[in-house]
Design goal:
heterotrimer; A mainly alpha; B mainly alpha; C alpha/beta; A: mainly alpha; MetI-like fold; 70% helix; B: mainly alpha; two-stranded antiparallel sheet; 75% helix
């Protein structure tokens, strides 16, 4: 079953369809939403914590900025940073996993011990430590999140590589005398990519969640950036007066993470189902 | 009829290491844990001290003058080479001296030992964690096994979809939404965990409800999904099929023959989630203003209070790694194949 | 005539989507008798066997017919009642005990639990001990406290049998119980099952694809093809003079370890579940078909009181006439060996221990010769094959190609050496890259080892597919679309693409059905004649050795214990171990003599 065909099949499940639709909507919001922003997201355009009215459809925040405009601009940072961090993690993780999985020398245990050390850190603590030591900015955040993902990706890739390396077609390639990089590229990588990327969607959601959390704690993106998580943090105190400054970004984050997870889960299940279907009665 | 049974292993020939495989495994695993802890402490130290200059300026804050900075550096021994500083911190830690809070000193002007600052907070965080775990374990096993036995039916779909939604929400979103709904709109429970000074959390148990719910929301969902997946795998196995073909009651098949084999992976899953709780607790305490270790840690990071982050970080790492080790030992205990000699 | 204990009438089984898997299956069994249920993959024999206990795998349902055991009808009963009857009336012994025994329950309990469940008032300890002794297992407390992974394969299977017998059922269904066991254990187990059947008056349904094994045990045989019984009767009669063309084809393709024979294969491919044609399912492959065979399904007709055949033309089925093999190619005088192995020692280094797979093994292969390397699993034969192919580095000794010693690993060997030695693996499911088209898989050695251009290589692919008797259209398919036999042929074509002098075949037919195996062996014989290929054929099956090898090497625990030309070695083995192997090898010819 080619990966594309499997991916398309998931769109028939109810939750998969809902998730896909939601994702498209949100993607549209994030990419072209800013074009529709009525005000400058960083500009103080009204009195603080005003309730929604004709001028400010979602009211203003604790500093008097238009909530709607900030909301329209606020998704880019979370999704963009999460995508960057996850992508980086996969590139590094796949490289490490391939080398460790294929090598029969000390390189394997060495790499895996290094991975174990990173895994011994609770992810959030790791990011907090980095924030303390290297400062509270976006680059550190992306690097930190990517590093948190790398060990588990490397483990999965390593296991898949080891399992594939003993297959007949890989050994046939080795017996032909093909070089290591050719074996990895032609024989092993195409056959493990499906397994490895199966949880990519869920990992992306995880990145979104952790980046949003760090931003919320004030240790990532700094004000006056328009970011959904920052907005929640900044406006928490004034919810009795103006709940929309918190409710709007909260709902949007929830919507985003649930949608991505629904899609990811539906894809993973349909890939799993396509291999399970080969078990027809004998 | 020729001899058919495999020759019984003569116990006398088996080397001692193999006669008590479990004991040796325990030793090895604990040693590995300690070694990991050691490396983690080094990384903690390196990670927090990448920009040492800031410690001094963080202490003095706005009153930084070059002379003042130099004086603070002398006082805090920041001029010594890094390995020396690391060693004095570590050896002090092991003896119970967690160092002195820079932020505390900046405020009060006096050296403030960290161990004094955290004793109450540790208790509060421990209570929060314990309540969560005590609810998490039975609920996740119960729901997970239940969903697995009804796999594919509507009940299972309901459980799976609900848990998928619950996992997707970050704790701060869940917490904030809960505050908006339950605390503000319905007015049922306090939205901020205020404990008057001098009293403990036990006399104000209602403040625990929302934080525990927030923590449970995502962790329970995650654990239920994985327990269910493990159980479904076991229920599809050849030995479960044979148990059914041999005529065992379904109740016995699930509870006696299937569950036993799902326990190993289940323990790993629960351990994984308890570890994840460490991060969740930090955020949740911050959302609710709960006076625990997590909230203090975030404040320390904001203030660049390096000694505080170092020591509390190591404390958290100790808990984290110990849980890892205990989980591994439990798994080996529960899975006969790993426990017995080959 | 004693009461019949098992009656199956018009059993129909289908997928939930409506496609039939098993149709029109009926038979009866008396106590103390063994019915051999024989068929290749896709025949529906396992599905039928499970239905005897009222059990269906997910996605399958019983659409019609009845199964009655000791007068009680099982079909149509609710699951809860079926559970009570299973184990007491009818029991099942699974195919792979390693995965069917619960890894977390002690073996004594796995047997005892069944007693507790079905017959709680009996003395547990004593009954369990008695049953264990019955299957030649120790009944000590120490043994009963073991876990399945602490037992050998043969012991695991015996525990499964003990569990099936402990409640003294009337009928026992054995599903290929000797798969994966070595030949000697297998022959012991078969003997014991035969004795148990007599002692306990058991009615046994023995499911298998291995006709020789079934022959040694069965009183009746039912042959299944495409979900239907095509022939059923007394074993002796059916095996001596089969009436259905499929049975005839099957028997002609079974190799015999005592007589070097030419194998005949059945043309075409077995039908899958969804592809059954109208009319007789075997017609497309049948040498005796006439017009009516394609239009109508023949019924299972009684041609004698206890013999039924499903064929319009059964009276035209010829007698079985095994052909002797053509003599090994006449050599024009002694030729220098193409491959020499000198003092080879190969080890596997584990975490705590090192196992020696091959000790001081030396032999030579002449050009165009087929040398068989025979031994049980763990004898080291696969490791030796891998050393020759350059996949495993020996600890001592050397491999010599045309007089020149070779580097241990393939990566260091010159291209010519890599080209001249090729290897084909056992498992057809993982010998081809699932992401590469068949054409690319076959072309690769030609490009890498013969430096052909892309165009030349694609042209070569066409020639090679023809050589291995595969349709040219297969080139643009993926391996998942091919059957096991087709995949092995592609693997052979890939090996041939390099124009090798020696092809190492590592148990290449062990995972194939008997008729498919015969076809592949036939193909290899033809290729040898056409191309002058030398073959190193690794196998544990003496029958295969008899049909293809010129010379034989016997390995026991890494040591070469006997070597010689195939005929004399099989008929007059010298070494004790070889004698044991030959005696234990199941054979049809020995049992053809009427009792």
């Amino acid at each position: 079953m080619t990966a594309l065909a499997a991916r398309l099949r998931f769109a028939r499940t109810g939750s998969g369809r809902f998730g896909l639709a939601a994702c498209f909507l949100l993607l549209a919001l994030i990419l072209i939403g800013p074009l529709f922003a009525p005000h400058d997201p960083a500009g103080i355009v009204g009195s603080p914590l005003q309730r929604p009215d004709a001028n400010f459809l979602l009211g203003t925040d604790s500093l008097g900025r238009d909530v709607l405009s900030r909301v329209l601009w606020g998704g880019r940072s979370i999704v963009g940073l999460a995508a960057l961090a996850t992508g980086l993690a996969y590139v590094v993780g796949i490289a490490i996993g391939l080398v460790a999985g294929y090598s029969r020398t000390l390189v394997d245990p060495l790499l895996m011990r290094a991975m174990d050390v990173i895994l011994a850190f609770p992810p959030l603590l790791f990011l907090l430590v980095l924030a303390t030591g290297a400062g509270q900015n976006v680059d550190v955040l992306v690097f930190g999140v990517a590093t948190v993902h790398v060990p588990s990706i490397a483990r999965i890739v390593r296991a898949a590589t080891q399992e594939t390396a003993v297959r007949g077609y890989v050994e046939a390639s080795v017996a032909r005398g093909e070089r290591v990089h050719a074996v990895l590229r032609h024989e092993i990588l195409p056959n493990i990519l499906g397994t490895v990327l199966a949880d990519a969607g869920i990992r992306l959601t995880g990145s979104i969640i952790i980046i949003a959390s760090v931003n919320f704690l004030g240790l990532g993106l700094q004000p006056p950036a328009a970011d959904w998580a920052l907005m929640i943090a900044e406006n928490r105190g004034g919810t009795t007066l103006q709940p929309w400054a918190v409710a709007a970004p909260a709902f949007l984050i929830a919507f985003l993470t649930v949608a991505v997870n629904l899609v990811a889960d539906a894809v993973a299940r349909s890939l799993g189902r396509s291999t399970a279907q080969k078990r027809v009665a004998r | 009829m020729t001899e058919l049974a495999a020759p019984e292993l003569a116990l006398a020939d088996v080397p001692r290491r193999r006669r008590h495989p479990f004991a040796f495994f325990v030793l090895r695993r604990v040693a590995a844990g300690l070694a990991t802890l050691f490396v983690v402490s080094i990384l903690l130290f390196v990670g927090t001290n990448v920009l040492p200059g800031d410690v001094a300026s963080a202490v003095l804050g706005r009153d930084s003058t070059p002379a003042g900075l130099a004086a603070i550096r002398r006082e805090l021994h920041l001029n010594r080479p890094a390995p020396e500083r690391y060693w004095s911190w570590l050896s002090g830690f092991v003896q119970g001296n967690l160092g002195s809070s820079v932020a505390g000193q900046a405020v009060s002007g006096q050296p403030t030992p960290i161990s004094g600052l955290i004793s109450d907070r540790i208790k509060n965080t421990a209570v929060l964690a314990l309540f969560t775990v005590v609810l998490l374990v039975p609920l996740s096993i119960g729901f997970g096994v239940f969903a697995a036995t009804r796999a594919g039916r509507s009940v299972d779909h309901a459980i799976t979809t609900t848990s998928l939604v619950a996992i997707s929400l970050p704790e701060f979103v869940t917490g904030t939404l809960l505050i908006l709904l339950v605390s503000q709109w319905l007015g049922l429970l306090p939205g901020v965990s205020l404990i008057p000074i001098g009293e403990t959390v036990f006399s104000h148990l209602s403040i625990l409800v929302l934080p525990v719910l927030t923590l449970l929301a995502a962790s329970l969902a995650q654990t239920v999904r994985m327990v269910r997946a493990g159980m479904v795998e076991v229920l599809r196995s050849d030995y479960v099929e044979w148990a059914r073909l041999s005529g065992h009651r379904e109740r016995d098949v699930v509870l006696r023959y299937a569950l036993r084999n799902a326990l190993g992976p289940t323990v790993q899953v629960i351990a994984l989630n308890i570890q994840w709780l460490v991060g969740g607790i930090v955020v949740t305490e911050y959302v609710f203003g709960y006076p625990g270790l997590g909230q203090a840690l975030v404040q320390a990071v904001s203030a660049r209070d390096v000694p505080y982050v170092q020591s509390v970080g190591l404390l958290i790492a100790i808990v984290y790694i110990s849980l890892n080790v205990i989980a591994d030992l439990l798994v080996v205990l529960l899975v006969p194949k790993l426990r017995t000699a080959q | 005539m004693s009461d019949v204990v098992l009656v199956v009438e018009d059993l129909q089984m289908e997928l939930f989507s409506g496609e039939p898997i098993v149709e029109d299956v009926s038979f009866q069994l008396e106590p103390g008798k063994v019915l051999g249920l024989v068929g290749e993959s896709g025949s529906g024999k396992t599905t039928t066997a499970l239905a005897l206990l009222g059990y269906t795998r997910p996605g399958v349902r019983i659409a019609g017919g009845t199964v009655t055991v000791c007068g009680r009808t099982l079909t149509g009963r609710p699951e809860r009642e079926l559970r009570r009857l299973r184990g007491q009336l009818i029991a099942y012994v699974p195919q792979d005990p390693a995965s069917s025994l619960n890894p977390s329950v002690r073996v004594g309990d796995q047997v005892g639990d069944l007693l507790r469940r079905h017959a709680p008032d009996r003395d547990l300890d004593r009954e369990v001990a008695r049953t264990l002794e019955l299957v030649q297992l120790p009944s000590s407390r120490e043994f009963r406290r073991r876990f399945p992974h602490q037992l050998s394969g043969g012991q695991q299977q015996r525990i499964a049998i003990a569990a099936a017998l402990v409640c003294r059922p009337a009928v026992v269904v054995l599903d290929e119980p000797t798969t994966g066991l070595d030949v000697v254990t297998q022959s012991h187990l078969l003997e014991e099952i035969g004795l148990l059947r007599q002692e306990m008056e058991l009615a046994i349904v023995y499911v298998s694809h291995d006709l020789a094994v079934v022959a040694s045990l069965a009183d009746q045989i039912a042959v299944m093809y495409a979900g239907r019984i095509v022939e059923e009767g007394q074993a002796a009669g059916v095996l001596a003079a089969p009436r259905h063309p499929y049975t005839w084809g099957l028997l002609s393709s079974v190799p015999d370890p005592h007589e070097p024979r030419r194998l005949r294969s059945i043309p075409g491919v077995a039908v899958g579940v969804g592809d059954r044609p109208d009319g007789c399912a075997f017609a497309p492959r049948c040498p005796q078909r006439v017009g009516v065979c394609v239009q109508a399904m023949p019924t299972l007709d009684r041609i004698q009181p206890d013999w039924r055949v499903r064929c319009f033309e059964w009276h035209r089925t010829p007698t079985l006439a095994p052909e002797a093999r053509t003599a090994a190619r006449l050599s024009a005088g002694p030729m220098p060996p193409v491959l020499g192995v000198e003092g080879l020692r190969a080890e596997h280094r584990g975490r705590d221990s090192t196992t020696v797979a091959a000790r001081d093994v030396s032999f030579a292969i002449s050009p165009g010769e087929c040398l068989a390397l025979v031994g049980e699993s763990g004898s080291g034969k696969t490791t030796i094959a891998r050393c020759i192919a350059g996949l495993h580095a020996p600890t001592r000794g050397r491999i010599v190609l045309d007089g020149t010693p070779l580097a241990p690993l393939a990566g260091r060997r010159p291209r010519e050496a890599r080209r001249r030695i090729q290897i084909v693996f056992q498992n057809p499911n993982d010998s081809l890259n699932p992401r590469h088209l068949v054409a690319d898989t076959i072309a690769r050695p030609a490009r890498v080892l013969r430096k052909l251009s892309r165009k030349e290589a694609q042209h070569a692919v066409g020639e090679l597919l023809e050589r291995v008797r595969l349709p040219a259209g297969l080139a643009k398919r993926f391996p998942s679309e091919l059957s096991g036999g087709e995949r092995q042929r592609v693997a052979i074509a890939r090996a041939l693409a390099a124009h090798p002098d020696l092809v190492v075949c590592d148990e290449i037919t062990s995972a194939l059905d008997v008729s498919v195996q015969a076809a592949v062996l036939e193909l290899l014989a033809t290729l040898r004649a056409e191309l002058g290929l030398a073959l190193l054929f690794i196998t544990h099956d003496l029958g295969v050795v008899a049909s293809i090898a010129d010379r034989v090497l016997v390995l026991e625990d890494g040591l070469l214990c006997e070597e010689g030309p195939v005929g004399p070695l099989l008929s007059r083995p010298q070494h004790e171990y070889t004698r044991r192997l030959v005696a234990a090898a199941p054979s049809l010819t020995e049992l053809r003599a009427p009792v």
